Amino acid sequence: MNLTLKEIALMSGGTLSVGSNLSLSFDNVVIDSRIAKDKSLLVAIKGDKSDGHDFVANVVTKFEAGALVNKSYYESTLSSIKVLPNLILVDDTIKALGLLAKNYRETLTITIVGITGSNGKTTVKEMLNSICESEFGVGNVLATEGNLNNHIGMPLTLLKIKPKHKVAIIEMGMNHSGELTYLSNIAKPNIATINNIMLAHAGHFNDLEDIAKAKGEIFSGLMDDGVAYINQSSPYQDLWREHPGKNTYFGKPGSICYIKYSDTGSKFTLDGALGEINCELKVLGDHNKLNAMTAATLAIALHCSSKNIQQGLNNYKGYKGRLERKEAFNGALIIDDSYNANPDSVKAAILAIKDLPKPHWFVFADLGELGKFSKDSHAEIADFAIQSGIDCLLSYGEVSKITHSVFKGPKMHFTSIEDIVKYCYEHLPKSATLLVKGSNSMNLAGFVSKIVK
């Protein structure tokens, strides 16, 4: 981004404070005052614990910078920022951020890829990023950082697009209907796909079909000549064909890309528009082969070569907290999948360790946002763990008591991470594989940090 204060005010629908420098230029947008610098635009957001407006004065006086602020705060009797220049006054800073990103996107000719799905969207994004870096060069590809995929994070990502970028890979998340309509109509993707439909954030929906309809909103913002890439293996594909844009299919023989062959390990062969591509992933799990297929499909849409698709997938080393291999204090193998979880990703993780050293220990914590599906889902995980050969279950949290009660075999239930750590130090076999999985809110990443070597 390289915009003047005047341009940002127009694009965000705001008015300027007295004494503002209309030609002041900006090349970055932040919501955290601690990372502000010269040419920063601070978007002041009122959160649960702090109010960004309280830090506006420090940023604007310390740097050659400006701020997007709520008009009501600016006009309040206690406001300390009334005398400051270079402020853009709006009714709602979050909505204004979205409007700014939307209008900025309209000035761009870059190809934007939109990715959503219940599971694996970050992995698909990172795999595609790896391919595109091989194709277009490192530094010429912009991809969503971490999981900045919501109504705040996604606009911030769009505003990072610079002229050097050849493609932007934008992840879009949601947990309510309507959210992807909002995000997609800001990003206006040229290419978009839905990786899968599973029980993630299911507590806000009636059933999987409702989730599929909400995910299908990603196609509503497609550019007029945009293309919806639809997985023919999905039982919900008919729900997505109605969205605007040309449909292209993948996932089955005869489509643009499908898995022709897969062994029991990490090797598989893609086939389709570019012919056969032999791949060997460095990451665990058959589900990651499906993620790779989706990434390859999008890469084909971006005119990447088969050589760079193969190289990009083979070079992908995984993502922090997603089936990440680590060594425990005693030499046991830890599979850290603590980043986040829903019922289907838990099952995928259990399957991913099937060929790893035994015994298989499983540290499992509560899954959130499942609503009416919560009780049955936690019970199903216990049954699945039994069927899949989990040798010992260590559960943690209130709802995972259900998993503990259903599981047949060696098991312990805990009320604190410290107690799980203590138990592992005393009982974890050196030969074991320890899978760690649960919702982010359960802080299993903190558990892993205390038992790694």
Overview of this protein structure:
- With 453 residues, this protein is α/β, with parallel strands linked by helices.
- It has 3 domains: 3-92, MurE/MurF, N-terminal domain (Udp-n-acetylmuramoylalanyl-d-glutamate--2,6- Diaminopimelate Ligase, Chain: A, domain 1), CATH 3.40.1390.10; 108-315, Mur-like, catalytic domain (UDP-N-acetylmuramoyl-L-alanine:D-glutamate ligase, 3-Layer(aba) Sandwich); 324-451, Protein-Tyrosine Phosphatase, Chain A (Alpha-Beta Complex), CATH 3.90.190.
- Helix content is 34%, strand content 21%.
- It has 16 helices and 22 strands.
- It has helices spanning 5-12, 56-62, 71-75, 93-105, 121-136, 153-158, 179-187, 208-215, 237-240, 286-301, 306-315, 343-352, 374-387, 400-406, 417-427, 444-451, and strands at 3-4, 15-16, 25-26, 28-30, 40-43, 66-70, 87-90, 111-116, 141-143, 167-171, 191-194, 227-231, 246-250, 257-262, 267-272, 277-280, 324-327, 333-337, 360-365, 392-396, 411-414, 433-437.
- The strands form 5 sheets. A 6-stranded parallel beta sheet has the order 9-10-8-11-12-13. It has a 6-stranded mixed beta sheet with strand order 17-18-22-19-20-21, with helices on both faces.
- β11 (191-194), α8 and β12 form a beta-alpha-beta unit.
- α15 packs parallel to α16.
- The longest helix has 16 residues, at 121-136.
- The model has no long low-confidence stretch (mean pLDDT 95).
Give the N-terminus to C-terminus distance in angstroms.
Answer: 43 Å
CATH topology name of the largest domain: UDP-N-acetylmuramoyl-L-alanine:D-glutamate ligase
Which secondary-structure class do the elements indicate?
A: alpha/beta
The geometry reads as globular
The spatial strand order of the largest sheet comes to 9-10-8-11-12-13
How would a crystallographer describe the biggest sheet? Answer: 6 strands, parallel
Indicate the proportion of strand residues: 15-25%
Number of helices: 16
The average pLDDT is 95
List low-confidence stretches: none
Counted up, domains total 3
CATH superfamily descriptor of the largest domain? Mur-like, catalytic domain
Per CATH, the architecture of the largest domain is 3-Layer(aba) Sandwich
